[in-house]
Amino acid sequence: DFLFFWGGIFLVTTTLVAFLKKENQELIPAKEETKGITDTYRLLFSIIKMPAVLNFCVLILTSKVGFSAADAVTGLKLLEEGVPKEHLALLAVPMVPLQIILPLVISKYTAGPQPLNTFYKAMPYRLLLGLEFALLVWWAPKVKHEGGFPVYYYAVVVLSYALHQITVYSMYVAIMAFNAKVSDPLIGGTYMTLLNTVSNLGGNWPSTVALWLVDPLTVKECAGAQGHTCATAAAAEV
Predict the structure, then answer these.
(1) Number of structural domains the chain divides into
(2) Residue 127 — pLDDT band, cuts 50, 70, 90?
């Protein structure tokens, strides 16, 4: 019902935009350098070969390795420790207004000549919160009782996620501001797309690797089956 309702809203609003919104007929005087797919990719390769852009790509592709495991695995491990899925989903609700307000607040600090300063300042705090997330997972079975988890545990989880969101958005807004600042206005769309794609990839590949490594790096013990290990999925099933 939820998806059906918002699907209907989406169809109605986009249809109204298609019929009621008129394109601006004024011609833009600036000449576009890119005219087709081939020219666009040639331009992308010429941009990425620039030493400064290459250094930036290496930086942004590796900058999120340190907290990829905490970001990708914490929620799954809390579920594994018995935190109800619906409770964990409800904890995301208080984050929505925070996610709306944070970019507005952080943009004041990234509007200057050095937007990446905010990125650098937020990184150590995000790394420390990764350790705190590990403690949250370790703490979960300690406080669990027959009725579930105490209210104070959920309060600590919400506070931890809120602090985490501040660091996430500080880094995200800073990178976006930097990409907008250094992109050549004449080919701004192409330039921004390249840098934002690299930024997205820099966040996605470490999370994927972290999820892939969870199983082989998890230490498991078999209860009541001496001489057997649970190192692999097949052995655990046996």
Answers:
(1) 1
(2) very high
DSSP 10-24: HHHHHHHHHHHPPPP
Letter for the amino acid at 75?
Answer: G
pTM for this one? 0.76
75 belongs to a structural domain: yes
- Are 199 and 168 in contact by the 8 Å Cβ rule? The answer is no
Cα distance between residue 201 and residue 61, in whole Å: 7
Closest CA to 66 of 5, 143, 155, 131: 131
Do the domain assignments include residue 21? no
Residue 1 lies in a domain: no
pLDDT band for position 217 (cuts 50, 70, 90): confident
> According to the model, what pLDDT value does residue 30 have?
56
Q: Residue 129: how many CB atoms within 10 A of its CB?
A: 23
Residue 107 lies in a domain: yes
Give the Cβ contact number of residue 65 at 10 Å. 14
pLDDT higher than 70, residue 29: no
At residue 92, the pLDDT reads 83
CA distance 88 to 140: 13
